[in-house]
Design goal:
The structure holds 2 protein chains of 2 kinds. In chain A, 84% of the residues lie in helices and 0% in strands. Chain A is mainly alpha-helical. Chain A has a domain of 32 residues. The longest helix of chain A is centred in the middle third of the chain and has 53 residues. By secondary structure, chain B is mainly alpha-helical. Classes of the chains: A mainly alpha, B mainly alpha. Chains A and B meet through helix 2 of A and helix 1, helix 2, helix 3, helix 7 and helix 8 of B.
């Protein structure tokens, strides 16, 4: 361990602001990218599922109409 | 000899392979990154000249190096997609663009933060920084073109032309520190020469490079699956998959 205590570790020899800002922004951006990639999958599933329901309904309606034709 | 690869041209097979690989890349990238980042921040020795703020190198260099590797991977996928009309390589290229753009942003921002204490300025218009800023604009242009068309085939073709043309920028970035007199320093790690930093500083950097690469692979797989699903949304296999998951 390079630092003798936790306060020294946070202080980074007086340059804590630069180091923690850089690491914070890096992992913040990577987290945003990861979450958006995961949520995109969820919204895609929802979208495809909704379209499927719509198509099924349409098909049922069409089939129903045919039966009622004179 | 390479015939076993053929079935993977089918989106369904590739999707399954991606799903099998995803947990391995996710878990290994998290483990390697935690080791690398803790080592970099807490255990690596302090630099004589740059004190503790040199620790920014452990994210700046992996992000910058791999943003260019991602670009080359994306350009290769685009080229394959254009020549052999493979829908899947278009999906791979589209999956990688936002990852590359994020890495480029990270390298620019961490570079600016690092520049403040070491150079006394966050930005100069020297060859390395300027050519690298152009890489970000190229990435953003590619992403914009991919989203500008409803038709994915058309979108991939438009974005693909920019990807191929933009590849000329990669060697310019790489050699900018040799061709021009830049404020930015030359390469720290080189394949042919002794690296210009000590071993106990070098190991965490190599571990972080590896960790970032694993993380990029995991993210690429997640986004690749999304792209395949979006492109194949009308196919029976996707409908089955969605029906199973949405019950």
């Amino acid at each position: 361990m390079h630092f003798s205590n936790f306060a020294d570790f946070i202080d980074m020899g007086g340059y804590g602001f630069y180091v923690w800002l850089a690491y914070g922004i890096t992992f913040g951006l990577l987290l945003i990218l990861t979450l958006s990639s995961i949520f995109k999958r969820k919204s895609l599933f929802k979208e495809i599922n909704a379209k499927q329901r719509r198509d099924e309904k349409l098909q049922k309606l069409r089939a129903g109409n045919k039966n009622h034709e004179p | 000899m390479w015939k076993w690869l053929h079935p993977y041209a089918k989106p369904e097979r590739s999707y399954q392979l991606a799903s099998t690989l995803l947990p391995w890349f996710t878990i290994s990238s998290i483990i390697v990154l935690i080791i690398g980042v803790v080592w970099a921040l807490a255990f690596a020795p302090v630099d004589i000249y740059q004190k503790d703020y040199y620790r920014i190198i452990y994210i700046h260099v992996p992000a910058a190096t791999l943003s260019m590797s991602v670009y080359m991977a994306m350009a290769s996928a685009t080229f394959i997609g254009m020549v052999w009309q493979l829908k899947l390589s278009d999906a791979a290229a589209a999956a990688m663009a936002p990852i590359g753009a994020t890495l480029t942003t990270i390298a620019l921002v961490t570079g600016a933060i690092w520049g403040a204490p070491s150079w006394g300025t966050s930005w100069v218009w020297d060859a390395r920084l300027t050519s690298y800023l152009i890489l970000l604009f190229i990435y953003l242009g590619i992403i914009a073109l991919q989203n500008a068309f409803e038709d994915k085939v058309l979108a991939s073709r438009a974005a693909g032309i920019l990807t191929i043309v933009g590849a000329v920028n990669i060697p310019i970035i790489k050699y900018s520190v040799e061709w021009w007199n830049t404020l930015h320093q030359g390469a720290t790690i080189s394949k042919f020469e002794q690296p210009s930093m000590g071993d106990d500083m070098l190991y965490p950097l190599l571990i972080n490079l590896f960790g970032f690469a694993l993380m990029i692979a995991a993210l690429s797989i997640v986004r690749f699956r999304n792209e395949v699903l979006a492109r194949d949304s009308m196919r029976p296999w996707v409908k089955e998959l969605v029906a199973k998951e949405c019950k």
